[in-house]
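Per-residue structure
===
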Amino acid sequence: MKYYNRMLCCLVVMICQVFPICLYAQEVLDEQQLIRTLQQGGYNLYLRHEATDWSQHDKVRQRDDWLSCDGTRIRQLSEQGRQRARRTGQAMRNLNIPVSEVLASPYCRAMETAQLMNLGGVQPTNDVINLRVADYFGGRDAVVATARELLSRRPKAGSNRVIVAHGNVAQAATPVYPGEGEVVIFKPGGEGHFSFVGRIEADGWRELSQ
């Protein structure tokens, strides 16, 4: 038993070296606790862009191709995704969750998700750009580093920051891989430190706001 305990400790240390977030992990909250916590402000809400049309494919041949809203060139939101983005934004407003800043990857599907949520002006940022085009921004490690720094940055006092981006960025920068439209909540600690406190699936907002 002692041998297995030592092995487990070693494994935890190794994981924490790869994912520094685990060194600052908090107790994960249930959805009702999350809502009450978000109403107080102080969190970063990372939302993977809403549901997309998977019959479409990203065809990036040169820089800025990802800005296109043409489905023959870059994968776009599906109608379901557009409707759900509106519902999520409405639910957040109904729940009185304060938002002072909305950032989004410049990909059309991320920008459109953020705009349809209607939580305020949307500012594009390359800090959470899709890792498939990371070579245009210094490489995968550079994008992961900027994403982690952003997640560690505290929002305006009494409010929250919404970040709309991609699943692969979240998977690489944190130990969480969100589904399309899922919101993952982090408590920023500054200087690259942040902790995972919970997640709300795309269809969960409707029930929570009723």
Summary: Residues 1-17, 20-24 have pLDDT under 50 and may be disordered.
